[in-house]
């Protein structure tokens, strides 16, 4: 079975600073994808970034980057130059490919990020 | 704008009632999912569907059933609502191929009294 672990229930960061949100995963399947989603207080789930298990380079999307360390099974999200609008819940998720019928995402428990002035 | 639409943002029901949560997507996605979100537990998969009339149990299917009669619509049914089913319910859809990125609805906050 697949498992995602987010050990930081809450984090604080000052505006304009960088912050790292931790995510570790567990799977025996060699082919998988890792996702990060943001959930502001409005409740919508916003896709941020994706990393495939065979991707040679760490994924980046604007101020978001994914620090992918395959041997350690970690996929930490790095947000550079934090903004007040980054305050939200952040979820790490994993999809194991080649599961047959449909590829479902398994989510972690989330990290609530608060950006302060 | 592509969309996943959930019929209600807030719903209050009584214990024992039959509850229907509706979800519609306009992206012609093959896969549709129902998750529930609880504080400290993250998102947990209830049921998913990879084609019309096809469904599979997720991690917490007990007390729920689903229906997918049309490709764009996926319904979650609580046969006899109980207080422990008070939760935020999120519907999502994805393509069968590619990264299978999930597109989410805005959620339904269900309270069972």
Brief descriptors of the model:
heterodimer, A: 117 residues, mainly beta, 6-stranded mixed sheet, 4-stranded antiparallel sheet, 52% strand, B: 113 residues, 7-stranded mixed sheet, 11 strands, 57% strand
TL;DR?
By secondary structure, chain A is mostly beta strands. In chain A, 0% of the residues lie in helices and 52% in strands. Chain A starts with a strand and ends with a strand.
Polypeptide structure, described:
The complex is a heterodimer of chains A (117) and B (113). Chain A is mainly β and 117 residues long. Helices cover 0% and strands 52% of the residues of chain A. In chain A, the strands form 3 sheets. In chain A, strands 2, 5, 6, 10, 11 and 12 form a 6-stranded mixed β-sheet that branches. Chain A starts with a strand and ends with a strand. In chain A, 37% of the residues are buried. Chain B has 113 residues and is an all-beta fold. Chain B is 0% helix and 57% strand. Chain B has no helices and 11 strands. In chain B, the strands form 2 sheets. In chain B, strands 2, 4, 5, 6, 9, 10 and 11 form a 7-stranded mixed β-sheet that branches. The radius of gyration of chain B is 13 Å and the shape is globular.
Summed over residues and divided by their number, the pLDDT of chain B gives a mean of 93
- N/C terminus separation of chain B: 36 Å
Report the principal-axis shape of chain B: globular
- Structural shape of chain A: globular
Identify the most extensive interface between protein chains: A-B, 25 and 29 residues
Rounded Rg of chain A: 14 Å
Helix tally of chain A?
A: 0
Strand content of chain A: over 45%
Share of residues in helices of chain A: under 10%
**Low-pLDDT residue spans of chain A:** none
- Major beta-sheet overview of chain B: 7 strands, mixed
**Major pleated sheet of chain A:** 6 strands, mixed
Report the sheet-strand fraction of chain B: over 45%
Total beta-strand segments of chain B: 11
Count helical runs of chain B.
0
- Report the order of strands and helices of chain B: EEEEEEEEEEE
Helical fraction of chain B equals: under 10%
Average pLDDT figure of chain A: 92
Oligomer: heterodimer
- What pattern of helices and strands is seen along the backbone of chain A? EEEEEEEEEEEE
Which class do the helix and strand fractions of chain B yield?
mainly beta
């Amino acid at each position: 079975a697949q498992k995602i672990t987010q050990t930081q229930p809450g984090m604080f960061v000052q505006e304009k600073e960088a912050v790292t949100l931790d995510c570790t995963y567990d799977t025996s399947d060699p082919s998988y994808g890792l996702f990060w989603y943001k959930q502001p207080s409005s409740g919508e789930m916003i896709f941020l970034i994706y990393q495939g298990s065979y991707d040679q380079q760490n994924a980046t999307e604007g101020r978001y980057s994914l620090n992918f360390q395959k041997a350690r099974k970690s996929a930490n999200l790095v947000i550079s130059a934090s903004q007040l609008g980054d305050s939200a819940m952040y979820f790490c998720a994993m999809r194991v490919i080649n599961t047959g019928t449909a590829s479902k995402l398994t989510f972690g428990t989330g990290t609530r990020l608060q950006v302060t002035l | 704008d592509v969309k996943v639409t959930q019929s209600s943002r807030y719903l209050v029901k009584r214990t024992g009632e039959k509850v229907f949560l509706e979800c519609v997507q306009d992206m012609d996605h093959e896969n549709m999912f129902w998750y529930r979100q609880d504080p400290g537990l993250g998102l947990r998969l209830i049921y998913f569907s990879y084609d019309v009339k096809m469904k599979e149990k997720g991690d917490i299917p007990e007390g729920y059933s689903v229906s997918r009669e049309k490709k764009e619509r996926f319904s979650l049914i609580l046969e006899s609502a109980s207080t422990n089913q008070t939760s935020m319910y999120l519907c999502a859809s994805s393509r069968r191929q590619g990264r299978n990125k999930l597109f989410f609805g805005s959620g339904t906050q269900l309270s069972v009294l």
